[in-house]
Design a protein that fits this description.
- This protein is α/β, with parallel strands linked by helices.
- 33% of the residues lie in helices and 19% in strands.
- The chain has 24 helices and 23 strands.
- The strands form 5 sheets. Strands 1, 2, 3, 4, 5, 18, 21, 22 and 23 form a 9-stranded mixed β-sheet that branches. It has a 6-stranded parallel β-sheet with strand order 9-10-11-12-13-17.
């Protein structure tokens, strides 16, 4: 036994990841491991001592749904997660990643990373190209070797992304136009099996119907995984099952029977062995109150003794608040008339203006915006019953201005701005200039089109499309078959800010008992570690010392939405929405090394590895 400890954390309130209430004690760290746990450990044996009186100590938090694949190539410290206590991230979700390098040689003139990521994850093309430029490996083994060379700030857990697997095997054009032949499917199975044996944690697919490619001539085509027939999904998830790895999926939400058919793949009763399956996401969608109920019902059925599944919905422990830059928003992709405005490149203002001036577009936009808001018929009934297909509420009252050239509009809803446009009196000069040319008596659709034409991306607004009720959000968080996640960290640079979603989960749990906090800690640490078969997630003696200290008093007053900032990231040469929880997380240890303390990152953070690439425990096929 080592006679010396590198660090001694004293007098902490310890939540050890096993789900129980807290204990008070000390934690000794040596050689990157938890060397001792106890009360009154000898401080003379420690090189460094940290007094954690009044603070919670817990295992490093695990974020199971990120898109950090590209950011790692530009800034591998993953600072925006580590500062909030996250020490392990699962990436390559939703069928997208860079396991096979840039794949430019497979693109036949198309840049696959740019084409697949840009609209789905709302990452500017120039950022994606910079990442693709350094993705010089060409196979899944090469990517793992590459990850091992990076100065990782957190542990990373890659999966095999289905869209990129199709491109690798079939070539880009074939991957978005047809089913694989028998030889191609066998090749995909072989590549996947070798990757899972080599250290990948799972396999990710995507079936959300609004995930489109970003470059001509394929703007109306979806990403490659969407062209896979069920027999392909079944064959590849069978490989995943045989290696006891995780299948991450999104559901084909517009086709309930396909949802059920796909999710039945988790069943051990039907397929001999349960398939670890995690699906995005358990959200209380404002426009459709049935989705969360169906998700809970499916979870119960799939995990029942009858089907013997191993199924977990991901839950976002926060309001689903989405920012939009004029007409550019991930919410647009779901609605054909808005999707058309997302097709041009971000910088191509002229293309958007041509669309907005097109009389046919204006007519279709008006029909879309007014559908179900008047008269009689199925659309009106679905709207009244909150059973609509789209997440965007199409209510100006729900669309809040954050910033625009008229500073007085900040904090107001577009409904208030619409009323100001209608009154035509008492307006500021800047308002009069913006409203110039808007006909008197213009309806909401005409008003929106007019704003988009005049302001384009200078109008930044946000809306909450899901999880408006904290009580229901907390209920989902505390569900034993839910896994907190869906932060989308590393994507949607100016649309979402959930880097602190694990802290928001703890904040929701804190409203209850110590036992509730203990359960939430388990769901953020040991539960996802066990689901992905990772050697992380506890503070047991001998375990890797990924440790987080949190100030519960600071947490109790922390409101994540109030601490969103827009910063300029030099690594991206682009702005990004981030969170700031300074004062809540007092210390973050990754692999036994202090990475973050209450005042900031340690001096050499980002200059040497703190985290590492994690491979799941080997399983028998």
């Amino acid at each position: 036994m080592n006679d010396r400890w590198d660090t001694l954390i004293r007098n902490a309130t310890i939540f050890d990841g096993h789900g129980g209430g807290p204990t008070r004690g000390d934690i000794a760290i040596a050689d990157g491991k938890i060397a001792r746990r106890g009360v009154g450990l000898d401080p003379a044996r420690a090189d460094e001592m940290l007094d954690a009186d009044g603070q919670w100590a817990m295992p490093g938090l695990i974020d199971i749904h990120t898109h950090y694949d590209l950011e790692l190539e530009l800034d591998p410290g993953l600072r925006e997660s580590v500062r909030h206590g996250v020490t392990t991230v699962v990436m390559s979700n939703c069928s997208l990643g860079i396991a096979f390098g840039s794949q430019r040689s497979k693109g036949e003139g198309v840049d696959p990373i740019v084409d697949c990521f840009a609209r789905v994850e709302n990452i500017p093309k120039h950022v994606l190209r910079r990442a693709a430029d350094v993705a010089t490996w060409s196979d899944a083994r090469g990517y793992l070797d590459h990850l091992d060379t990076l100065n990782l700030g957190a542990n990373v857990v890659p999966m095999i992304p289905h869209s990129m697997l199709r491109i690798q095997t079939m070539g880009f054009e074939a991957s978005v136009s047809r089913h694989p032949d028998a030889a191609e499917l066998e090749s995909m199975k072989t590549v996947l099996a070798e990757a899972l044996q080599g250290g990948y944690a799972g396999f990710s697919t995507d079936a959300l119907p609004f995930h489109y490619l970003a470059s001509a001539p394929n703007l109306h085509k979806k990403i490659p995984t969407q062209y896979a027939p069920f027999r392909e999904i079944k064959a590849l998830t069978q490989v995943t099952r045989e290696h006891d790895r995780v299948w991450q999926a999104t559901p084909p939400k517009d086709h309930p029977l396909q949802v059920i058919r796909n999710l039945l793949l988790t069943s051990g009763r039907l397929f001999g062995r349960p398939l670890r399956t995690t699906v995005v996401a358990a959200l209380d969608v404002v426009t459709n109150r049935m989705l969360v109920r169906l998700g809970l019902a499916l979870t119960a059925i799939l995990n029942s003794k009858l089907l013997r599944g191993r199924f977990a919905l991901q839950s976002l422990p926060a309001r689903f608040k989405v920012w939009s830059d004029g007409p550019i928003t991930p919410l647009a992709e779901e609605i054909p008339e808005l999707r058309q405005l997302n097709e041009p490149d971000l910088e191509d203002v002229e293309a958007r203006m041509r669309i907005l001036e097109d009389p046919d577009f204006v007519q279709r936009f008006r029909a879309m915006w007014n559908a179900g808001k008047g008269g009689f018929g199925p659309a009106r009934l679905r709207r009244a019953l909150r059973l609509e297909d789209y997440a965007l509420t199409r209510r100006l009252e729900d669309m809040m201005v954050e910033r625009c050239p008229v500073e007085a509009w900040a904090g107001k809803s577009l409904a208030e701005i619409y009323r100001r446009a209608a009154q035509r009196s008492g307006l500021e000069e800047a308002e009069r200039e913006i409203f110039e040319g808007l006909p008197e008596g213009a309806d909401e659709a005409a008003f929106l089109i007019h704003l988009f034409k005049r302001l384009d991306t200078d109008l930044c607004w946000y809306t909450v499309t899901a999880n408006p009720d904290p009580a229901l959000t907390r209920r989902l968080l505390m569900h034993p078959k839910m896994l907190p996640g869906f932060s989308d960290a590393g994507a949607h640079l100016t649309n979402m800010a959930f880097y602190d979603c694990s802290l928001r989960a703890l904040r929701l749990a804190q409203a209850g008992s110590d036992a509730d906090v203990g359960f939430a800690v388990q769901q953020l640490t040991r539960a996802p570690a066990e689901f992905f078969n990772l050697e992380r997630g506890t503070l047991d003696e001998g375990s890797v010392a990924d440790v987080v200290l949190i100030d519960p008093e600071a947490l109790s007053t922390y409101e994540g939405e109030d601490h969103v900032q827009r910063i300029y990231r030099d690594a991206f040469e682009h702005h990004q929405l981030v969170n700031r929880s300074d004062g809540v997380v007092r210390a973050v240890f990754v692999g036994g090394a202090l990475a973050w303390h209450g005042d900031g990152f340690v001096e050499d953070f980002g200059q040497r590895p703190f985290g590492q690439r994690l491979a799941p425990r080997q399983a028998v096929a």
